[in-house]
């Protein structure tokens, strides 16, 4: 058993049907919640903070109203409220799955507790999350709207929230669970998975990402890798893992410390 702090994100593509608006994958949520329960029972010393994406919930209203780019007009504030409602709806499904799996979890919506400046979190009542961890509760955060000093309002992604939590909690690991198995050498063929990316090696790899279809050229994955490596650069003891939790058991194995996809390290 190890005493460590772990940040886990369940991606929106994993927990919702991204092709059908406002559609949670309820069976998948139930399985993932049970795997979290199994991992926490096996290692009670692990302090886990869970985050999840918005998938087919928040993104629909967010795109319609352009909420991430700023909120100023009456119509935009109406959209702000709509995005918040949809994000909370998905969070309710997540919390329900955890409750049914006997995981004692408590939700911390960024919209009610975080203030940002150009999408960088500058204020948060972090004490409440600390108290939750001390009580052996599972804190849950998620992609949500937030009031922003420069933009009026915006959307904070789960990764935006995690950046702040890394500063506050100095976690040992970040786990990003989605439907993609990891970072590929030959995207979109997907036959050669990159098992590890070290910070020192990434500069050489970067030219391949930008110049060809090697190492998963999709913008989302490239941004995700660079975001995590930036955090690792600032926190050299931190590791991050990008993996698929589609297959039963993969999430609990990753929580136990196995590399189920691509491991990023200093």
Secondary-structure blueprint:
Layout: E1 5-10, H1 12-15, H2 26-42, E2 47-52, H3 55-65, H4 74-100, E3 105-107, H5 110-113, E4 114-117, E5 120-124, H6 126-134, E6 138-142, E7 144-148, E8 152-156, H7 158-169, E9 173-178, E10 183-184, E11 193-194, E12 196-198, H8 199-211, H9 219-234, E13 239-244, H10 250-256, E14 262-265
Parallel strand pairs: 1-2, 1-9, 2-6, 3-6, 4-7, 9-13, 12-14
Antiparallel strand pairs: 4-5, 7-8, 10-11, 13-14
Helix pairs in contact: 2-4, 2-10, 3-4
Short description:
With 266 residues, this protein is α/β, with parallel strands linked by helices. The protein contains 10 helices and 14 strands. The chain has a domain of 167 residues: 3-Layer(aba) Sandwich (Carbamate kinase).
Question: How would you characterize this protein structure?
Answer:
By secondary structure, this protein is of the alpha/beta class. The two termini are 24 Å apart. The strands form 3 sheets. It has an 8-stranded mixed β-sheet, with helices on both faces. The protein has 10 helices and 14 strands. 45% of the residues lie in helices and 23% in strands. The chain has a domain of 167 residues: Acetylglutamate kinase-like (Carbamate kinase).
State the main characteristics.
14 strands; alpha/beta; globular; Carbamate kinase; four-stranded mixed β-sheet
Number of helices: 10
Radius of gyration: 18 Å
**What's the multimeric state?**
single chain
Low-confidence stretches: 209-218
> H/E order of the elements?
EHHEHHEHEEHEEEHEEEEHHEHE
What class do helices, strands and sheet pairing give?
alpha/beta
Report the sheet with the most strands, covering strand number, pairing sense and barrel closure. 8 strands, mixed
Average pLDDT score: 91
